[in-house]
Amino acid sequence: MTIKFRNRLNIGFICFSIFIFLVSISFFIHSLIAGNYTLPDFTAGSSSQSFFLRYRIYYVFASIIFLMLYTIATSFYLWLGFEKTQSSEVVFILLFLASFIFDSARLLIPFYYTKGPYSTFIFTLGNFIILSRILAPLSLLSLNVFTTEDERQNVERNLLMILVCATIFAVYIPLNTGTVYKNFAISYSFDKTIFITQITINILTIFIMFLRQFNAKSSQILTFGYAMISFGYIILFNTWNLLTLTAGIILTTTGTILYLGSLHKGYMFDM
Description:
Elements: H1 3-34, H2 57-81, H3 89-103, H4 109-112, H5 120-145, H6 155-172, E1 175-180, E2 186-188, H7 191-215, H8 221-237, H9 242-270
Antiparallel strand pairs: 1-2
Helix pairs in contact: 1-2, 1-3, 2-3, 2-9, 3-5, 5-6, 5-7, 5-8, 7-8, 8-9
């Protein structure tokens, strides 16, 4: 993939993410003003009465909106900071950010679920949510597997392969739209297996990155940043109280600054 094409892809992604954000927020505001919002039974309060652990619906909304704004801000930085570099990591980071766009489908669940929990629209939103859960860890894994010197010439192939595999799983994993979790995610089969797989992929990838940086006698800031991002997004995917919202935002934001800052310095040093 040439630098010119990658930059165009980045600009296109920025425009698309802004468009999705504006459309989602428009639906969100319109539904609130029109009074279409009804709190379904699945958002019943948590058993905990602690200020930090108590369930509040606006914490879920805040986590989704933050991820959308995070996507726009990070894609802007990738465009400006890596515009003239040969970084193939940018493509897979954009794929990781794309998982947050698919995850934004959760924002619409409370407004349309009560109109028909078994409608095609709700099923489609559920497929998007599953896709985000599969795409995020695969994208982060690709940052270590498909960015070596041998794989830099196969970026388009690897990108397409990840998208196709994630989409197939997202379409064929059975949904149970009769059950919705507190974070507005539609219930789906193998949810615990997918969650455990996410954690396993993150831990193994962090360990591999640590060994790679250690053998190269390089700074582990890249590893620490990657680790923060890896667990920060999982926390935000499953946020419904103040503690997890705060922890997820801090981990994801700090990790992104450390990871992209270290990656940028590495490419500037090579240049």
